[in-house]
Amino acid sequence: MKGLEFWKHVSIGRYVESDSMVHRMSPSTKYLWLLAVVLPASVSRSAVVVAAVTLLPLVLAPLARVRIRFLLRGILPVLPFVALAAAIQLLISWPNDGSLVLAAIGPVSVTAREALAVLTMGLRFVAIMTAIGLFTSVTSEGDTARGVEDLFAPLAAVGFPARPLALMIAVAFRFIPIVAGEFESVVKAQAARGADFGAGARGPIRKAKAYLPLLVPVTIRALERAEALAEAMEARCYGTGPATRYVDTAGGAADVLARIVALLWTIAALAGPAVAAAIGGGR
Amino acid sequence: MERSNVRKIVVAGALGAVSAVMAVTPLGYLPWFGGASLTIMHIPVIIAAVLEGPLAGTAVGLVFGVTSLVRAATAPVGPLDPLFANPLVSVLPRLFIAAAAWGAFKLFRGKASPIAAGFAGAVGSIVNTVLVLLALGLVGAEQLSGLFGVDPGALPAALAALALSNGLVEAAAAAVFTSSVVSAWRGIESVRGKARLSEEED
Predict the structure, then answer these.
(1) Longest dimension (CA), chain A
(2) What is the ipTM of this complex?
(3) With respect to CATH, is domain B5-201 assigned 1.10.1740.10?
(4) Percentage, residues of chain B above pLDDT 70
């Protein structure tokens, strides 16, 4: 029976221990740089901006001693689908497309506007995928949670639960291997009793019911462990007064500078095209 | 018993882990005929909303969204994964599941708990389907029409068909799961409470 070893599939990100200058940055700085790529790449309509943010992770990767090939390899599995989408995109001609025709074979023509749209689409994927790949290779699990608290610390003043959120993420990270182990043991136990998890069942409700003996025990066991952990934390008076932190992630002057540059970059990437258009239109 | 803040945080973390494990393994998908698969990864979000309230549920929704974002970006397998590498598609819609499910659960004012939980599961699931497809349509209209091989103008119809076929089945599955888990957990809790009290009395 295949599919019993979930354990080896469970990896979110792939932290690579190293002592580069990017690794030494504080987690909130890394988050800001991640946003500086992902935000413009997902919302910007300008091809120039998307191209610029695509280069950013590739420039930062050598500084983090992460090989660019390692980042790009993650994209390989989706390339066929992107290529297919791009091909169909090129085949369907846009109405009122008055831009320059680059190539034409029979009725099918590739215009400059279509080529630009396809290129931007591809670059968006590459930018977001490499940025997240780079972030997860330079940020440990603990830092991922601590960074959330630092990042939302300004909002904590207006009542945003930054610390509970960080704690919740840290608990989730800690529980992931446990839950994966529970899934594995429950699947094996049920399979030993002849469960087929709905392989032969027809109809969605029956299918779902066949999964109940897996999902219910795993969720209940996770909830039981959570209750035990909460009881242990309450017994140690967590949440009754101000708490201190074991790891200091404030960062130094280099961090502050890097954060400011990241913010400026994001603002420039988001507002840049509009400003350029306004200047161009004003001429 | 009043739920303490620590409990809410820790339970949200545990359910977030369940959701994350489902998102990165094949466990989050029920294989269905025709190669289509139903997702059940959003069910921990609904369970958290029913058991611990909308804030805890939204936090689990955040974990679920970010996990699916990271998975789509670092280990893509399907044709839609590049689109899910966009936080507007993978994270933002998932933040609203919990509030909707919690609101649906509260409509019953604490009565008929298994039915209320099932209803919350269905509502949360439908909100997930509709918002994700809406985000997909808004963000990736060009790529989607390419993937489905339909005209950009016919895309809303294609997405609506997907919402009806997959979405309703997912809602039914979510109703069954949420109802079962919530009543099982409530049952365990109440039995435990009784056992402790009866021990005190003896």
Answers:
(1) 78
(2) 0.82
(3) no
(4) 73
